[in-house]
Amino acid sequence: MDRHELNRIIDHVAAAIDAAPVGQDPFFHLKLGNIFPPDVYAKMMQEMPVASDYRRMSGRTKSTRKMDGGGTRVKIDLFPEYIRHLPREKRELWNAIGKVLCSAKVRDAFMRRLAPGLERRYGANYQKVGMYPIPILTRDVPGYRIGIHPDTRWKGMTIQLYLPRDNSIDHVGTIFHSRNPDKTFIRASQMKFAPNSGYAFAVDKNTWHSVDTVGPEVDTRDSILLTYFVDKNPLQVLRNRGKRIGNFLLNEVRNIARQ
Questions:
Q1: Which of 17-21, 66-70, 157-161, 179-183 shows the lowest mean pLDDT across its residues?
Q2: How many CB atoms lie within 10 A of CB 2?
Q3: Long-range CB contacts (< 8 A, 24+ apart) of 149-154?
Q4: First and final CA of the chain: distance in angstroms?
Q5: Fewer beta carbons within 10 angstroms: which end of the chain, N or C?
Q6: Cβ atoms of residues 225 and 136 within 8 Å
Q7: Which residues, other chains included, contact 134 with Cβ-Cβ below 8 Å and sequence gap of 6+?
């Protein structure tokens, strides 16, 4: 993909972020829509990797494990060193998507639109906080669930971009929760798992969210998790890049074992 086409996609994604309506219930978030250009989204559907291209993602808890020990969530990190084993057309497309999501223009758009949440956590100088992007193509299968959690404080912004082919599984979107004084939770709102849509929020102690158990009516629940890790001190910088190297080595071992 040439630079002109890459810039076209970056501009479209940034414009979609700028146009996204805001949700306030139960915390500040963006309701993303028309994220990728329609022609690009259609190609993403066409060039979706096959099951054997993914590797198991541990997730936060054992809830991502099946009774037989297998995983209910698998992933492909959208960095060149991870996707180099994909067939050429898939590799070129997903490499471009990774570059788009790691671009400064997209990062800046998210920071601009999520300013209220970022300022609440980091203060008036939130724009000086480094953010390290990790884009991951994920696939959930029946049995996947994740309990109510606010995300680790290592993260600065959480974005999930939904990639279904149609609206037939729009009921499996992420649920946002509010917390009562007695530490019980209320289901405040739920995102629709609609094509080319998603959500974004600045991570804080009150950003409680979950996913109900994915039922047998779902074939796959495909999405991109774009996480911006806080990258402002030497420990965070070392940790973020160390994790990328570690995941690369795990991926290479997996591919050697497949041969």
A1: 66-70
A2: 8
A3: 149/60, 149/208, 149/209, 149/210, 150/203, 150/204, 150/205, 150/206, 150/207, 150/208, 150/209, 151/203, 151/207, 151/209, 152/203, 153/203, 153/205, 153/230, 154/229, 154/230, 154/236, 154/239
A4: 29
A5: C
A6: yes
A7: 77, 226, 227, 228, 229, 240, 243, 244
**Average confidence (pLDDT) over 54-82:** 71
pLDDT of residue 81: 85
Handedness of CA 10, 12, 13, 14 (dihedral sign): positive
**CA separation for the pair 248, 259 (Å, rounded):** 17
Structure tokens at 195: 């094509």
Q: How many domains does the chain have?
A: 1
Domain range for 76: 3-258
Answer whether 98's CB lies under 8 Å from 135's CB: yes
pLDDT of the residue at 141? 96
- Token duo for residue 176: 């946002």
- What proportion of the chain, given as a percentage, has pLDDT over 90? 78
Computed over every residue of the chain, the mean pLDDT equals: 90
Q: Which residue has the tokens 């050697």?
A: 256
Q: Is the pLDDT of residue 59 over 70?
A: no
Per-residue CA distances from 104 to 60, 99, 165, 231, 248 (Å): 28, 10, 29, 14, 23
- Paired residues of 187 in beta bridges: 177
CATH of the domain at 160: 2.60.120.620
